[in-house]
């Protein structure tokens, strides 16, 4: 595509780097920004820059946070002895929206996927094992999406925690096989958390 401006071309190319954004959608977004007041675009750009430069990851659960310890981990009303293991931040948000869970989380940052070059060492599994090893955790809930990669990760974590004697449960399969957790409706997801069962190999 031929652009009338190098600046326009550069902006479209940058937007096109985003997942799910093609060149046509990128062009629409850029042209939309051009129609906005300078203050609006400046605020948009500043929020992205601050996000990248200032966002933190909770030192306990690895959730995105504005501080060293996220608002969930620092909340004294949460059950710190129950840890829900999830793949990503979106899953934390999905489970929180069910209002059926009052424990804390552990965000792995992905699932084991040899096809994608993701192994156990690429995830926050070692920190989970260390966390459980301190003896403060009574239950670990495996709340990964019911896909082959999710099940593989569940099994790996179960084996890693076996010696600790901690109770390991898995969310009930009200979540359909191969469904992504973050796209599951809140009622189904909430029931899956409430009706969790002991993990079995």
Structural account:
The chain is an alpha/beta fold and 201 residues long. It folds into 2 domains: 6-54, RecR Domain 1 (Helicase, Ruva Protein, domain 3, Orthogonal Bundle); 67-198, 3-Layer(aba) Sandwich (Dna Topoisomerase Vi A Subunit, Chain: A, domain 2), CATH 3.40.1360.10. It has 7 helices and 7 strands; from the N terminus they run αααβββαβαβαβαβ. The protein has helices spanning 6-16, 23-34, 38-54, 89-98, 125-133, 148-161, 186-194, and strands at residues 56-57, 64-65, 79-86, 103-107, 139-142, 167-170, 197-198. The strands form 2 sheets. A 5-stranded mixed beta sheet has the order 4-3-5-6-7. The chain has a two-stranded antiparallel ribbon with strand order 1-2. Helix 6 links the parallel strand 5 (139-142) and strand 6 (167-170). Helix 1 (6-16) crosses helix 2 and helix 4 (89-98) crosses helix 7. The model has no long low-confidence stretch (mean pLDDT 90).
Give the helix level as a range of percent: 40-55%
Nearest-integer average pLDDT:
90
By CATH reckoning, the class of the largest domain would read Alpha Beta
Terminal Cα separation, in Å?
A: 54 Å
Number of strands: 7
Low-confidence stretches: none
Shape: elongated
Strand content: 5-15%
Q: Radius of gyration, Cα only, in angstroms?
A: 20 Å
Q: State the major sheet.
A: 5 strands, mixed
CATH topology title of the largest domain:
Dna Topoisomerase Vi A Subunit, Chain: A, domain 2
N-to-C SSE series? HHHEEEHEHEHEHE
Give me the number of helical elements.
7
Briefly note the structural class of the backbone. alpha/beta
* Gross CATH architecture of the largest domain: 3-Layer(aba) Sandwich
Question: Major sheet: order of its strands?
Answer: 4-3-5-6-7
Whole-number tally of structural domains: 2
């Amino acid at each position: 595509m031929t652009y009338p401006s190098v600046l326009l071309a550069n902006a479209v190319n940058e937007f096109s780097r985003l997942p799910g954004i093609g060149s046509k959608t990128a062009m629409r977004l850029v042209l939309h920004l051009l129609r906005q007041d300078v203050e609006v675009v400046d605020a948009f750009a500043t929020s992205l820059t601050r996000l990248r430069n200032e966002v933190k990851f909770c030192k306990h659960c690895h959730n995105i946070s504005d501080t060293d310890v996220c608002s969930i981990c620092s909340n004294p009303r949460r059950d710190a002895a129950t840890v829900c293991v999830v793949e990503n931040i979106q899953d934390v948000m999905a489970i929180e929206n069910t209002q059926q869970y009052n424990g804390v989380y552990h965000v792995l940052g992905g699932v084991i996927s040899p096809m994608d070059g993701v192994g156990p060492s690429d995830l926050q599994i070692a920190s989970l094992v260390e966390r459980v090893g301190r003896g403060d955790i009574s239950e670990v809930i495996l709340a990964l999406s019911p896909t082959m990669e999710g099940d593989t990760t569940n099994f790996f974590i179960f084996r890693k925690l076996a010696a600790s004697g901690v109770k390991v449960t898995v969310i009930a399969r009200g979540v359909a096989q191969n469904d992504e957790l973050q796209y599951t409706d809140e009622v189904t997801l909430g029931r899956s958390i409430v009706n969790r069962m002991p993990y079995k190999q």
